[in-house]
Amino acid sequence: MSARGACSIDLRITLMLNATRFLVVVTPILLAARSCALSAAEARSAVAGGVPVVEVLASVTGTVSVAGNQQRLTPLPVFKNRSLCGAQVPNETLLVGRHGGLRNAVLMFHPLDRKAVAQPMKLVLDNKQCAFAPHVQVATVGSDLLLKNSDPILHTVHARLGKETLFNVGLPTWRQVTKRLDRVGLIRIDCDVLHTWMSAVIMVTRTAYFAVSDEHGKFIVDQLPAGPYQVEIWHEKLGMKSMKMTVERDKFLSLDVVYAPQGKF
């Protein structure tokens, strides 16, 4: 087994739940931390297209998962435009795979030894088959968000930061609107034309180092400069937790996050 496959940093996050609120208490338990790396010499011996790689920045890979056997959330009922949307749609607020992998968890690495600098991005939020797509996104502050509608019915995009409305845009099929995301924080999005089941979230951050876990709970954050980081792990149902982590140059680290809820979803 390679050094990379043998080592990991595990962060177990325990959540206590009750029937009325998903997140009641969050207690972090740092289980183990071990260096997991290729040596600098090994990293620099890599060849890309016949040209030796001069420098390899650090990469962090891993999995976000939920312990135990979890019941799937029931689908959301549809009250309007059923001929297009159907009688119900999947609930995307908590997606756990067959092997426990958690989809749509956000991981952000905030540098502690320097000011975070990130270039603005261009993102798209579409309305497809009576759902916002994608359901979860991360944007750097100052990014432009293109709002569009691929459905043959009217939708709206009502974006809130906390209780404050940032914008509320009506989107017939032919209309596209771009909005600047110039404030850091969690933006929650709904559709106000009685499409009560529709929701999306966009995490706006100052750091350029982030990832969203895929359908297997896997993620990768690459091109990380060496140094100390505050790592934040967030999920819309399971909440936010953070830890500190030091990244060394030319190393490949593994970070596994396990949510262990007491009770059922």
How would you concisely characterize the structure shown here?
The protein is built from 3 helices and 22 strands. The chain is mainly beta.
Overview features:
single chain, mainly beta, Immunoglobulin-like, 2 domains, five-stranded mixed beta sheet, 3 helices, globular, disordered N terminus
Please provide a written account of the structure.
The protein has 265 residues and is mainly beta. The chain has 2 domains: 1-48 and 55-111 and 212-265, Carboxypeptidase-like, regulatory domain (Immunoglobulin-like, Sandwich); 119-205, Immunoglobulin-like (Sandwich), CATH 2.60.40. It is 5% helix and 50% strand. The chain has 3 helices and 22 strands. It has helices at 3-6, 40-44, 82-85; strands at residues 9-16, 25-33, 47-48, 51-52, 58-66, 76-77, 88-89, 106-111, 122-128, 131-133, 136-140, 143-147, 155-161, 164-171, 177-181, 185-190, 199-205, 210-212, 218-224, 227-235, 239-247, 252-262. Strands 2-1-22-5-19 form a 5-stranded mixed sheet, with no helix packed on it. A hairpin with a 3-residue loop joins strand 20 and strand 21. The longest helix is centred in the first third of the chain and has 5 residues, at 40-44. It is globular, with a radius of gyration of 20 Å. The two termini are 37 Å apart.
